[in-house]
Amino acid sequence: MIFPIPSAEAGRLVLGVARSANDNAWRERLTEAQALAAMTIAQRDGLPDVLARVMAARGVVAEQAADFLNPSLKTLMPDPSSLVAMDAAVVRIADAVQAGTSVAIFGDYDVDGATSSAVLATYLRWVGLAPVIHIPDRIIEGYGPNGPAIESLYEGGARLLITVDCGSTSFEAFETAKHIGLDVVVIDHHQVGEELPHVQSLVNPNRQDDLSGQGHLAAVGVTFLFLVGLNRELRRRGVFQNRQQPDLMSLLDMVALGTVCDVVPLIGLNRAYVMRGLDVMSRRANPGLSALADVARVNGPPAPYHLGFLLGPRINAGGRIGDAALGARLLTCAQPDEARGIAERLDMLNQERQTMEATMLLQADAQAVVSIDQDDPAVLLTGSEDWHPGIVGLIASRLKEAYRRPAFAIAFDADGKGTGSGRSIQGVDLGKVVRRAVDMKLLIKGGGHAMAAGLTVERAKLEELTAFFNETLAADVEEASSKRELKVDGALTATGATVDFLQLLEKAGPYGAGHAEPVFVFPSHRVKFADVVGNGHVRVTLGAGDGSTLKAICFKAEDKPHGKMLLDNRGRSLHVAGTLSIDTWQGQPKAQLRILDVADPQKVRI
0.70 cut: is pTM over it? Predict the structure, then answer.
């Protein structure tokens, strides 16, 4: 059964847990105002209380409830012309379509770049062009357009270059394009300053002069919005009088993939993109995505989890350690046999990436332990000449999670120049301090946003850089660390964790960044079984007082505090917190709990 949290108020402790195994305070997510909104939603729309509570806790008010449960692209999609420079981009590329211009697409090497490139290329092929896709090599070329690549594309015949998920700050590269006579249109979403490169059109909802309110879109979302505008313009020009109009909706599976994997907020138009895209993906019309789902062993209907943790990492593996163009090739591949071969190659690269990551993580962890023992720094900086630059971001993320502080991992070359990536904790703006370090000449280059940043640094500057980071961020890290908490949506017993209950919760989904997956606590459930499986995962069976049971999994937790508590307390009752999903293993749908945290009922404050 499901029942309300005892004495639940905004920010009140749940089950008295002030300090869990993972050092979190468990707090009620719903504020008092949201609780009132939940009551109104339930009464006005005839919705179950738990669904109304989940919606209200995510900012939905009564007037929005009906539209929220049925997000419509038609309702949520703005007029493409509301984005600055969109009309100019549409006209330039519509002209190219009618003239049969040779077009090159330059994309980033991550999933957002691959999907943006594939969505754009697929549409342009539908309307008669034969675009060439160029994805830069992360090691040789680095991020974004570069002069040699632009010259090569021009020599190959391209007369119009469209960059996606990059290009907003490519001043030097676009000077090269201007010099040789190559027109450029940029479709991007990254944060930019006031100064922009001179191109035919630069579409980016995060331009400082763009007031469209669409800055939360991933690049693939902006690209799709551009195609809506382009399709409208081509229709106005009569291009589709003697040919079938392209099916834009069939591209939404790739739009959903890029949106989820770029970890943009699943709100507004993004939520509609993902919800409709998952429907398209379930039809398995894209040979590349279908082949990738097969090699990744995706079971049941596709969900954001599958996109973010099974499909996305395999596409990213090509950009990290292999052929960066593999992802875009897979997504635009029309032949099932060829698609299967590319998907298997990406799967193999992902396994290689996992092996490399494990070795690098052991070395980085050893460096972190020494650093903490000696100085207990606010920011961890680790590095090695033996590390692969394509994996440092993953290492930084692991260190940040393990030591609950911002962390950088840096791969140095033989000349002492390091390429690094950093990940931050909530409340500590990493991108801001990296940009300051660039201004102070501590870095060769660097940038990013609050939660993630990249940098290039000389080893000789590393000690000074470390001191600057720690001096600048110490207070922010201390304050952020003192506020560790797990937001809880409600309490359940194993009996209430049913497939029907989860199908009800899915009405408020899909969940992801900016639209948090509901977290439930299971009070005083007995750990009937706990064992280590796979790569350090802890598999658990929980039992309620009425005899009902619930299967659970605790990912990569064998050596984590909550995993150890589960393994050390077989046969005892613990408070358990986590998220629920439907497991379709062997064709029989069942509820499964993904454990996020645990607490000992005998050691909490009542």
Answer: yes
